[in-house]
Design goal:
The complex is a heterodimer of chains A (372) and B (564).
Chain A (H helix, E strand, L loop, with lengths): L11 H9 L2 H5 L7 H8 L5 H5 L5 H13 L6 H14 L10 H9 L13 H4 L5 H14 L1 H4 L16 H5 L4 H8 L9 H15 L25 H11 L13 H4 L3 H10 L19 E5 L5 E9 L3 E6 L4 E5 L6 E4 L4 H10 L5 H10 L4
Antiparallel strand pairs in A: 1-2, 1-5, 2-3, 3-4
Chain B lengths: L2 H10 L36 E2 L12 E10 L11 H4 L5 E3 L9 E5 L18 E3 L2 E6 L2 E6 L5 E8 L11 E4 L2 E6 L3 E6 L5 E6 L7 E2 L5 E3 L2 E5 L1 E2 L6 E5 L6 E6 L16 H5 L10 E3 L4 E5 L21 E6 L4 E7 L15 E7 L2 E10 L3 E6 L5 E6 L7 E4 L5 E3 L10 E4 L9 E3 L4 E15 L13 E17 L5 E7 L7 E3 L3 E6 L2 E6 L5 E6 L8 E5 L2 E8 L2 E7 L1
Parallel strand pairs in B: 1-34, 4-8
Antiparallel strand pairs in B: 2-3, 2-40, 5-6, 6-7, 7-8, 9-10, 10-11, 11-12, 13-16, 14-15, 15-17, 17-18, 19-20, 20-21, 21-22, 23-24, 24-25, 25-26, 27-28, 29-31, 30-31, 31-32, 32-33, 34-35, 35-36, 36-37, 38-39, 39-40
Classes of the chains: A alpha+beta (372), B mainly beta (564).
């Protein structure tokens, strides 16, 4: 379930004034470049906890920001880049699960601080972890007695349920529920009371490493290569020549494109997404978005050109070439406002390219990946 | 009791003194939306169509600001009072009110106060207006506010244990009691006069990472609550006695026991019991059939394998539950085997309208996956499905039941699939019986969806994927003909929607960028605006002292407009 999309973020200045007094919220975030912009663009709708519960890589943060933009978050590409830098830098994935050790050091250093140090998180993230000795013992006992069915990473197998999401694990405090499950376990497991508690504490230390919104520890525990380049480069070249070559050229603006984006996923995101990555495909926000070129035709036929700030049925606001801001009242559609979306041709191309099996997408990506 | 005796007993009953007013007569909750705003959607039909028409296409230009209450801030710390540095400016409980001593704070909850988010109130969801008093909420906070001048009468503050704290859907009310869900999984009944706790009950397990933000719905002798969870837990609604808080029944949205209906649509009973189907937006209620109809959220894991190939009942569905028995009467899946977190919880709308030559009791919903549905709300019979969204490409068509058919190639895949994002979301739509149009916001964007966790056992919760690229065609309001599902007009707005309101005055109220605006409900033409800085919940309207008012909500602020 996702409630996190909180649209109608359209009040920079207003928010800035609100946040100016909301020092407590800002104090929960680490200092660093981009913090102010992040507070300004995001904190009007989001609390600290939603951020603290997301620890993820740059791509994932970028995707999150793109989702927010789709939902109406407002800001310039430069501002969103600042946000991305801040979030990716300060909320990167933590050390891989591997027994909750990544957190344990922090817990000890914090003198019994909460497991994840996440203020106000769910119990599994705030509860104190057991001592290193107990956890090490618990891990050994888990691996000997439990892992063959419930899996070393606790995701479960055909023989045993997924302990990471088991209500028994989650509701257990210090072994009383897990102990009961062990006592009733079929096949029979023989563990004495302190050992049961050690296993329970070990399970809690792993639960403390789950990510935001229920995502399990470890991005790709199967170790499968995440192959992006599955398309047919030849077919992609043919498609490119037909659909893209009117505006783009492999020896012109796209020369060395694959060297600029050595990661195929980043390359695919760049060519499909356009401007966000500052690549030759141009960009700009969709529809009547602010920042797009606008022509305003006054009642007497005279025209003003500039960059759109905002338009509705009552006002049009634009910035002229010399930087002057103009606001003009509108009535019954006068003055006429025509907004040009610089990304329009590109977006049209992407819509035309879309097919039910993503074949053209993958083919063009495979082709562009050859433009080293 | 004879009617005459009843009349006399009312006459001689001691006058109950409330903060002000006499509380809410439960019979009023069944009336069509007009003078008061008594539940999440104003009335129980979910229409958000007010029968008031003093404010109309001609008079709306005279709508003027009566009062503003800014700087409404949430409780902080153990006692609820903010640290001195936070109190600067207008003080804790709003500025612009009629003055007097600060409102009393009633403190509840099981936390220490450290986990509360101090600062600007995130006012949202159903803000009630009953008998001269506004009841508004932000996560962990409730305020009673004098509707004539914005003065806070009391403030209830819950010291949370933490967890996921998103916006709240607001409040419910019955007689002299106000009901509110806390994100750390309690429902509290407050005395409407002073904010004192009357009873409180645990809804779900905080340890299991549930979070509860729904607005309690008071339906006859039942307080219905829902909950949320991203940790692969089962969804459900619960019904409590409004007077005592006694649990009446629990209805699970996924199979919980061997042999339960729908269990064969899951990989296993264990998968079903971790299958999600959360209940975080209120439904609507038909007192004639006693059916409460609500939408259920996505299955879990949301994006990856691990649930089998079946439909995953009853996630992504409209469900009709009899409130007296807690048993399901019918269901209709709007997102069978959802693989996109389509989370079909949007409030359904009830209307009695002509359809194919005869009057039908209809239920309509526009779901996040970009489909609009019309059903018979008594039987669940399917009548209309249509597609909204300019770039809506995730499905390959409709099946024989009128349900969208998922195209598996548009699931999150390792090399990426080009697919639309959420077409609409929780900000509520409105339906005007006068225009026959269903108004909803439509988000238009495409992105690439990647599978990042290819573990054959599946991921958990909302984990396992990543997004890339984003092409936006902006957000629009669309007006949909309920008979055909066809879009009659589409008009782009600035930014996102905060929810809609339509009126018998021929108006559609909405947020557009920094404005609250009134549009002609037939044509979509803008008629009035006020630039108050963007709305945080849908506009509401009601009568006070013989005048029609419009309430708009911003960050920590209420704006009361009136037609003089």
């Amino acid at each position: 379930m996702t409630q996190r999309v909180q649209p109608r973020i359209y009040r920079f200045i207003f928010l800035a004034s609100v946040l100016g007094t909301s020092a407590a919220l800002a104090q929960q975030f680490p200092d660093g470049p981009g913090k102010d912009t992040t507070m300004r663009l995001c904190a009007g709708c989001h609390n600290a906890d939603i951020v603290f519960q997301h620890r993820q890589g740059r791509d994932e943060w970028n995707a999150e920001i793109q989702k927010m933009i789709a939902a109406g978050a407002q800001g310039t590409p430069a501002q969103f880049n600042e946000v991305l830098t801040y979030l990716a830098g300060n909320f990167a994935p933590e050390a891989p699960a591997g027994g909750g050790r990544g957190r344990r050091g922090g817990a000890a250093a914090g003198g019994g601080r909460a497991a994840g140090g996440r203020r106000g998180g769910f119990t599994q993230f705030t509860r104190p972890l057991a001592s290193q000795d107990v956890l090490a013992r618990g891990q050994g006992l888990y691996e000997t007695n439990c892992a063959s069915c419930h899996a070393p990473d606790m995701r479960g197998s055909e023989k045993g349920t997924r302990l990471l999401r088991s209500l028994t694990s989650l509701n257990d405090q210090h072994g009383e529920l897990i102990g009961k499950a062990v006592a009733e376990h079929n096949p029979k497991i023989v563990l004495n009371q302190p050992d049961t508690v050690a296993v329970a504490e070990y399970i809690h230390s792993i639960l403390a490493t789950t990510g935001g919104q229920g995502s399990p520890p470890g991005r790709n525990p199967a170790g499968v290569k995440l192959e992006i380049l599955v398309g047919d480069a030849k077919a992609g070249e043919r498609y490119f020549d037909k659909a893209c070559a009117r505006c783009h050229s492999a020896v012109g603006d796209l020369k060395g494109f694959a060297s600029k984006y050595p990661d195929p996923r980043a390359l695919q995101n760049a060519w499909v997404g356009g401007a966000a990555a500052g690549n030759p495909f141009g960009g700009g926000r969709g529809g009547g978005g602010g920042g797009n070129p606008v022509t305003v035709t006054m009642a007497d036929g005279s025209k003003l050109e500039g960059k759109l700030v905002r338009r509705d049925d009552f006002l049009v606001i634009l910035t002229l070439a010399d930087g002057t801001r103009r606001s003009i009242a509108r009535h019954d559609g006068v003055p006429k406002v025509e907004v040009k979306d610089p990304n329009e041709a590109h977006k049209k191309m992407v819509l035309e390219l879309d097919d039910p099996e993503n074949k053209n997408l993958h083919d063009v990506t495979a082709y562009l990946a050859t433009l080293k | 009791m004879s009617r005459r005796f009843f009349a006399i007993s009312i006459l001689f009953a001691p006058v109950l003194a409330f903060g002000q007013g006499r509380g809410l007569d439960p019979a009023d909750t069944l009336k069509p939306l007009s003078d008061q705003w008594t539940s999440y959607s104003g009335d129980l039909t979910g229409k958000r169509f007010s029968h008031l028409k003093l404010i109309d296409k001609d008079t709306v230009k005279n709508l003027s600001l009566q009062w503003v209450s800014t700087n409404i801030t949430t409780g902080c710390g153990p006692a609820g009072t903010p640290p001195p540095s936070e109190a600067g400016g207008g003080g804790r409980n709003g500025r612009g009110g009629g003055g007097g001593a600060p409102a009393p704070i009633v403190v509840g909850g099981f936390g220490t106060g450290e986990a509360n988010n101090c600062g600007t109130a995130r006012l949202g969801g159903g803000i009630l207006f009953v008998d001269g008093t506004i009841y508004a909420s932000s996560p962990d906070n409730v305020w009673a506010i004098d509707a004539r001048d914005g003065t806070v009468l009391w403030h209830y503050y819950w010291k949370t244990r933490g967890g996921t704290s998103l916006q709240t859907r607001g409040l419910g009310m019955w007689k002299d009691k106000v009901y509110f869900e806390l994100h750390d999984d309690w429902v509290v009944c407050l005395n409407a006069k002073n904010g004192a706790e009357v009873w409180k009950k645990e809804i779900s397990s905080f340890d299991a990472q549930y979070f509860s933000s729904n607005a309690p719905m008071v339906l006859g002798n039942h307080v219905i609550v829902g909950t949320g969870n991203d940790m692969d837990a089962p969804g459900y609604i619960k019904s409590f006695d409004p007077e005592t808080g006694e649990l009446q029944w629990t209805f699970y949205t996924v199979p919980m026991n061997p042999g339960d209906p729908g269990v064969d649509t899951w990989a296993s009973l264990d998968a079903a019991r971790h299958g999600g189907g959360m209940t975080w937006i209120p439904g609507s209620y038909d007192p004639e059939t006693k059916l409460y109809i609500f939408g259920t959220g996505n299955p879990t894991p949301a994006y990856t394998t691990g649930r089998g190939e079946g439909d995953n009942l009853y996630t992504g569905a409209l469900i009709a539950v009899n409130v007296d028995t807690g048993k399901m009467a019918w269901y209709f899946q709007t997102a069978p085997h959802d693989t996109h977190d389509w989370d079909s919880t949007e409030t359904p709308i009830f209307a009695d309208m002509p359809f194919n030559g005869r009057m039908r009791k209809l239920v309509m919903t526009a779901t996040r996956n970009g489909y609009f549905f019309v059903l018979d709300r008594v039987t669940g019979e399917h009548l209309v499905t249509s597609k909204i969204g300019m770039v809506n490409n995730w499905a390959s068509g409709l099946d024989a039941k009128g349900q969208p058919k998922r195209n598996p190639h548009k699931d999150a895949t390792i090399p990426g699939s080009l697919v639309n994002s959420d077409v609409t979301n929780y900000p509520p739509p409105t339906f005007s019986p006068d225009t026959g149009l269903f108004y909803v916001h439509e988000q238009n964007s495409l992105r690439i969806s990647y599978l990042m966790d290819p573990d054959p056992r599946g991921s958990m919760g909302l984990g396992g994927t990543g997004g890339g690229a984003n092409l936006s065609w902006g957000t629009s309001i669309v007006a949909v003909d309920y008979k055909t599902g066809k879009i009659v007009w589409r008009k782009e707005i600035n930014g996102g929607s905060s929810g809609l309101l339509s009126t018998a005055g021929g108006l559609l109220f909405l947020s557009d960028g920094p404005n609250v605006e009134a549009w002609d409900a037939v044509t979509g033409k803008g008629l009035w605006y006020s630039q108050i800085g963007g709305l945080s919940s849908p506009p509401e309207t009601f009568m006070l002292d013989g005048k029609q008012h419009l309430l708009a909500t911003g960050a920590g602020a209420l704006y009361m407009f009136v037609l003089n």
